[in-house]
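Note to self: keep these together.
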Amino acid sequence: MQEIKTINGTILQRTVEAEELEAHIGETIKIHGYIYKIRRMSDFAFVLLRTKRNVVQCVYSEEFSMFSPEMLKEESCVVMTAEVVREARSKTGYELRMRTVEILSEPKETVPVVINQKKIDTSIENLLDYRPITLRNEKERAIFRIQEGICRGVREFLTNENFTEIHSPKIVAAGAEGGANIFRLDYFGKEAYLAQSPQFYKQMMVGVFERVFEIAPVFRAEKHDTSRNLNEYTSVDFEMGFIESFEEIMRMETAMLRHALYFLKENCGMELELLKVKLPVIEAIPVIRFREAKELIAKEYGREIRDFEDFEPEEEKLLCGLIFEKTGSEFVFVTHYPSKKRPFYAMESRENPEETLSFDLLFRGMEITTGGQRIHDYEEQVLKMKRRGMTVELFESYLMMHRYGMPPHGGLGLGLERFTARLLELENVRRATLFPRDIHRVTP
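Structure:
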């Protein structure tokens, strides 16, 4: 019988990682990456090698390089042999003297956008049209290394707080929030929708695991064309049971964000420095009721209150400015939003049924989180749905959890792209989105 080949799981490391180079000073190593930029001098050249996280300075010279410089083209994918040499003038304290190079692939045409400068000097349309290429820019990709760090920090915190990560369906039979802003699908002859949020499912899973979270895409069919809205975005959701007050959710988010920012500081220092990010300090976050916030803005700025159910974008900016001026906090919780503005599952205040036990978190002038306590009693939930003219029978699978007992619970959804954009002070949320989906864009 012929011998059967097996794979034993041994991970081979054929090349040195850029982060390890300092430990190899004085040695000849192999390293792979992309030729990011070539600066040709009279008798030598500086070659910047872009690895998966770092950009490494290499030197070509006929004195020690055993290949023609004509072999090198920007954006070629290469494996090189090089000597790691101490160099005080380099930012890293060392440089690579190129010995040999193996070309794995090279570009077939000139890159349409210059990506190897400190900043890509082009329109946001070009930035997004050529996204697979423009993301190779050192600063552009740093945005998403930081975004990934936010997710890792959130996961670490919630896992330590005994939350269970779940994965809810994105094709659903009913929208969590209803209304016209929902994408309809022909699902094998039945009408279905893209999920606006994991709301129903994370509530159901509170009855299973008590504390759950999910980081996943959600979809909104809103025809907005602004710098703050997307039609597909990533929502950081958590839901927790056996709460006594919706303030427990706000406390949990405060601790979660504090941990995520600490995680960034510890693990993404290079990217934070590259983008000159000013990390906010979270000690305690101020809290103000919605109605009081509206009146404060009207009084301080002499503005007439035109919308008594929600904030205008300008009001969010003004409120954040006032809170920062008075407290030094770049965050503010706004609570007790009007019942008319909140979804049917939002619990109403016992003192004033016109208000809900809900909140938004504003950060640097923009709402990044919506959350609150949910209705857990079956009769109370059905009664509210009927008051809103909803067809209760369409929500039987959702109401099943209420029918068979649920603890007091609540949770939130944080927009990952919005939070990233405000953290990095980017003017458009699309800059903090890998491949944005809005009313104009479904490619690349």
